[in-house]
Amino acid sequence: MARTKEFDPDAALQAALELFWRRGYEATSMADLVSHLGIARASIYATFGSKRELYAKALERYSEQHGPDIVVELSQPGPALPAVRAVVRRFADEAAADHERRGCFVTNTAIELAPHDAAMARRVGASWDSIETALTSALIRAKAQGELPAGRDPRALARMLLVLLQGLRVIGRSTDQPGRLADAATQALALFDPAEPATADQP
């Protein structure tokens, strides 16, 4: 009869996620994981595989926990542009309130591992593709509903916002100037404002 595991793999994975999220991949050793998870090294290997495999599972868990939020926010019926604005503001507010300087697990992975790890790069790309698709769909709806100024390209705007959102997370992790984040969000959202009508004083 197989021996019953003496720990909860789900709880252990969540604990690993929290440690990797706080410290990053390279700065987290197997000894750190053994100590933080409270289980033997052999049990970690037997259940999750190598440190890299455990990190990949933690990244997948993070994406499952955090990824759907933005899709749900942007797919609600009714006016679409207020939802887009709310998402941008939320990212700026969360980045400004990140006093632990953890950032976003996906963005952290993009910076630390994706440049030299093709598999991690694909995982990061899938997460960003999901956000871009949700933004594009919302902006297409906004344009169809007359919320978006004529001539604006929903896909190009979505890509601009994706870069902004990731930038907010990076800057938020390394600055104590929330005004910088708020100003960036405000200027980006100004692109969605209707063009000011020309007046007689203007050339």
Write a structural description.
The chain contains 9 helices and no strands. The protein has helices at 9-23, 30-37, 41-48, 51-74, 81-96, 105-112, 118-144, 154-174, 178-189. α6 (105-112) packs across α7 and α8 runs antiparallel to α9.
List keywords for this structure.
mainly alpha, elongated, disordered C terminus, 203 residues, 9 helices
Put the structure in a nutshell.
This protein has 203 residues and is mainly alpha-helical. Helix content is 68%, strand content 0%.
Q: Given the helix and strand composition, which structural class is it? A: mainly alpha
Overall strand count: 0
Distance between the termini: 86 Å
> What best-fitting shape do the alpha-carbon axes yield?
elongated
Strand content: under 5%
Which percent range fits the helix content? 55-70%
Largest sheet: none
Q: Roughly what is the average pLDDT, rounded to an integer? A: 89
In DSSP terms (H or I, runs of 4 or more residues), the helix count works out at 9
Which stretches are low in confidence, meaning pLDDT under 50 for 5 or more residues running? 196-203
Overall radius of gyration: 21 Å
Q: Helix and strand string, N-terminal first?
A: HHHHHHHHH
